[in-house]
Amino acid sequence: MKNTELLVYMLEDIRKVTLKGIDGLTKEQLFAEPLPGEFPIGAYLMHLAEVDLFWLSIMDGKEIDAELKKRSYADVWFDSGENSAPPSEIIEIDEYLETMSKCRAKVYEYINSISDEDLETKVYMRWTNNGEEKSKEFTPKWILYHLIEHEAHTRGQMFMLIRMAGFKNKGDNN
After folding, report:
1. Rounded to whole angstroms, how far apart are CA atoms 68 and 48?
2. HSE-up of 161 (CA within 13 Å, CB side)?
3. What is the tens place of the pLDDT at every residue in 120-172?
4. Helix, strand, or coil here: 49?
5. Residue 96 — very low, low, confident or very high, per pLDDT cuts 50/70/90?
């Protein structure tokens, strides 16, 4: 098995477990604060989508798809700073799922377009901080590993909040 195939398998597997853990939650539960001051579970889902898009742009060097960036509420819930403007109306469950799927499909498309050797190619994240140009080096292999690790971490946060809020999903036997 090629490394690129293994990475796709791992990304698919982790997403399957994430989605199983929210199966049965209502759109109201996905949109509500599970605990006072916490982001809604749906915000975590969209965060996974926005992170896929961000890291894809580092790997492929292309601009982030504007429509998907908007659909995933990029920089609206997480990392929004003082200008936070989260959605005010409940989002349909299909919107979360379709957005996440479309963002992840773009990552798969990228992976399927490269070779195992390309996984070790250096890519750079560039930004400006107080007028100073900054840069950090990564490889697609590390970025894809990070997407897996990030989803596992985020999923743990979501599942803990789901339990603490008393939300029941289809996997609960209680």
Report:
1. 12
2. 25
3. 999 999 999 999 999 999 999 999 999 999 999 999 999 999 999 999 877 55
4. helix
5. very high
User: Would you put residue 136 in left (φ > 0), alpha (ψ -120 to 50) or beta?
Assistant: beta
Integer CA distances (angstroms), 15 to 3, 58, 109, 140, 174, in order: 18, 21, 16, 19, 24
* Model pLDDT for residues 14-28, shown as the tens digit of each residue: 999 999 999 999 999
Question: How far is Cα 168 from Cα 174, in angstroms, rounded to an integer?
Answer: 8
Q: Which residue's entry shows tokens 């809604």?
A: 40
Question: What region, left, alpha or beta, does residue 88 occupy, with left being phi > 0 and alpha being psi -120 to 50 degrees?
Answer: alpha
Residue with tokens 């429509």: 67
Give the 3-state secondary structure of 103-154: HHHHHHHHHHCCCCHHHHCCEEEEEEECCEEEEEEECHHHHHHHHHHHHHHH
**What pTM was computed for the model?**
0.92
